[in-house]
């Protein structure tokens, strides 16, 4: 089970940067992301360029003999999907984080300014009643001393507790202790008292006004920074949206030209590129749906989609499956009539029975299996358990389970099978089935939470598929 930590919790399934189109094909090289801000980032950027060049070279080798214009279009879509868009996603994610941080700092300063202004208003009201020379703390403590000092043990108490030998020392000591115990919500007044524990109201008012002037300058600067950061984040979002629109257009054009491909190698290479572009588009649509749902009132059960929009790239072409299945999640407190995923079931697969929404732990392999099947229009029960349990649990919900791969089927790995976790097993989704007995799967949490990677496996009847 892999539990790799991600630094930004916004959910989106990023396309893997590597994929084997069929057995024996060279894998497209993974493409790390970087921003050239430091020496390390410069090195990463150089590696990214080298890997991108290597990726293109390997893809073109698969497209050998294909019309040059068509080959260029396939390479362009692949680069856009696996290099340009992930880089734009990472930039948007960084900008979102910066904007959120800047806004948080601006809000905190605004709150402090409002608290100081409230202190000023309250003090001005008191001054209107008693004048500027009135010393609240001194008057209160002095009155207490006058009432209790003579003919009592108060003098002994003062000496023991504060070390004071006179009423004046006792008053000043108590004022100092009072200043130390003040809360941060009264930071402005607290600062004023710290300057002089015997301040009268007029002096305290001046100190608060000075504090307000300083806070206002800081708050104005923070607000301007927040506006700039928000504008930058919006610009990054717009750029990413333009790239995705470009990808949609390129994919549509390429789909209409597939009949020009003759060799199986070229056809499957093109199919791989189209598939990755389609998955990215579906994941983007999913993110928009989650964002819109999160904005609706009385929607406390929704997950906040803020933060990273899925710029992670994976790339595992056959390593260990691993991955916690994340069969957790809480049962709805008041289950309602199960809903059928949009698009309806495909090819008789799936079921609306037991489908209460994606209740699996976010980012885990079970979460992705449910979500990917939902994107394909296939219903999946919400509580099939760990990935290794799906093939056992599925028949009770009316799902067909067999050893035959089919697009959209969930591959329930046995515990320890092909690197699956020895305790939880693993689950993936079949993306394509080839005539030579191999099939392509997508899976989450092999390279980290929310990181979607791809592998090509060979079917000898050893796998359990949930349809």
From TrEMBL:
<feature type="signal peptide">
    <location>
        <begin position="1"/>
        <end position="36"/>
    </location>
</feature>
<feature type="compositionally biased region" description="Gly residues">
    <location>
        <begin position="307"/>
        <end position="330"/>
    </location>
</feature>
<feature type="compositionally biased region" description="Low complexity">
    <location>
        <begin position="297"/>
        <end position="306"/>
    </location>
</feature>
<feature type="region of interest" description="Disordered">
    <location>
        <begin position="290"/>
        <end position="352"/>
    </location>
</feature>
<keyword id="KW-0175">Coiled coil</keyword>
<dbReference type="Pfam" id="PF05257">
    <property type="entry name" value="CHAP"/>
</dbReference>
<feature type="region of interest" description="Disordered">
    <location>
        <begin position="227"/>
        <end position="263"/>
    </location>
</feature>
<protein>
    <submittedName>
        <fullName>Amidase</fullName>
    </submittedName>
</protein>
<feature type="coiled-coil region">
    <location>
        <begin position="99"/>
        <end position="140"/>
    </location>
</feature>
<dbReference type="InterPro" id="IPR007921">
    <property type="entry name" value="CHAP_dom"/>
</dbReference>
<dbReference type="InterPro" id="IPR038765">
    <property type="entry name" value="Papain-like_cys_pep_sf"/>
</dbReference>
<feature type="domain" description="Peptidase C51">
    <location>
        <begin position="340"/>
        <end position="467"/>
    </location>
</feature>
<feature type="compositionally biased region" description="Basic and acidic residues">
    <location>
        <begin position="233"/>
        <end position="254"/>
    </location>
</feature>
<keyword id="KW-0732">Signal</keyword>
<feature type="compositionally biased region" description="Low complexity">
    <location>
        <begin position="331"/>
        <end position="343"/>
    </location>
</feature>
